[in-house]
Amino acid sequence: MKKITFILLFLSGLSVSAQEIKTLTLKDALQYALENKSDAKKAKLSVENSNHQIAEVRSRALPQVNLNGGLTYNPILQQSALPGEIFGQPGAVVLVPFGQKWNSTATATLTQNLFDQSVFTGLKAAKTTREFYIINQQLTEEQLIEKVAGSYYQVYVYKQKLANAESNLANTKKVRDIIKGQFDNGLAKKIDLDRISVKVSNMESARQQLINAVQLQENTLKFFIGMPMEQAIQLPENTIEVTAEAFTEKVEMSKRTELALLKKQEQLYRFQKKSYLAEYYPTLSLNANYGYQGLGKEFPWGAKPADGVYWTDFSSIGLNMRINVFNGFSTRSKVRQAEVSLKKTEEDIKDTELALNYGFENAKTQINNSVINIKTQKENANLAQEVLNNTKNNYINGLASLTELLDAETALTEAQNNYTTAQLEYKLAEIQIIKSKGELKNLVN
């Protein structure tokens, strides 16, 4: 029994450990974000809610049916003064009570809009509102993709810096072991051993700082994609690839979601203006009702004429027209406010077009600089590695000082970090280029 329990626990441990680390490609991270991040979910819910908004507006064009019922008891009936001639009492005034002690009614009413310009305008606006939310969902997803992609590459850069630090630390430890061996044999000075030991200690501290930085960046990425913090992740090797990119000469404005959203908002403001203008139009509606009424001295429910309660039905059909003659210039004020909103949106569109062109030109310049910088920094890193190897050999053979060796190691670390940073700058600029083309969703597909 103990053996079986041990085996089950062992297999369970293997299962847990297999689930501990999740490998994330950029595509995986983006898909996870679009499915799990609250911003993406809320954008989808807004589209769903727009269908209900359309149904709400459409209801104003459909018949409205209501059922009403009431039961009234009159302890004291109101009396009216009538001329006595009616009752054979000339010159006198007779007080006559009207109505019955009990009154019960049940009524069904129907109202149908025959003409209401605001309803017709509202239906068109509701459909446009749905289109607005669909575009807004697309923009939300694009913004999420941009944010996640940038954070993803940040994780890679810090992991690459950590890998460089660990590699350099291992090499420096080898040099320290060599110097220690020489010191033990009386071939090296103690100060050299102390200096290289301090160097190792500093590199270990820097390595630990990079480990913490990687954890912070991974947490940031998990937050951006909506992943639980306890989920461990890893990035595949060779995440950043610098390839030739075909760039357009100008921004494809027709593909930019930001502009499409503003233009749809402009369309909504035009419908809003038309809705306010509709207040000047007359409205025409059909009204119909049918009811049943019981009157008598006794409680009417279940009673009959023999009990002194009389039941009768009634009905009416009519047309209602309403014409807005004067409302204190309220409609005129609302129309002018809508016109101001339209003008502001037009300015937003112009400013957004300028900003998009500005961002594209900057990204294009940045990516060109990054390509040159990557090539330069890669050559520098290779050269720094070669210098370090030669300096290490010269130091072992007594042809170089420890200071020269330590300087060569520092130069290599700096060159490697510069190369990694140049890769990051390239990828961030590449994201902006893809965004300018309106093709961020292609990163997911």
TrEMBL record:
Q: Which domain of life is it from?
A: Bacteria
Read off the Gene3D superfamilies from this record.
Answer: Outer membrane efflux proteins (OEP)
Subcellular localization(s) per the UniProt record: Cell outer membrane
User: Record's Gene Ontology CC terms?
Assistant: cell outer membrane; efflux pump complex
Tell me the first and last residues of the signal peptide. 1-18
Keyword terms of this UniProt record: Cell outer membrane, Coiled coil, Membrane, Signal, Transmembrane, Transmembrane beta strand, Transport
Locate the coiled-coil region(s) and give their ranges: 335-432
Q: Which InterPro entries match?
A: OMP_efflux (IPR003423), TolC-like (IPR051906)
Entry annotated with the keyword Coiled coil: yes
Q: Which Pfam families match?
A: OEP
UniProt entry tagged with the keyword Signal: yes
Listed GO MF terms: efflux transmembrane transporter activity; porin activity
The entry assigns this protein to a family as follows: Belongs to the outer membrane factor (OMF) (TC 1.B.17) family.
Q: What is this protein called?
A: Outer membrane protein TolC
Q: Which organism is it from?
A: Flavobacterium cauense R2A-7
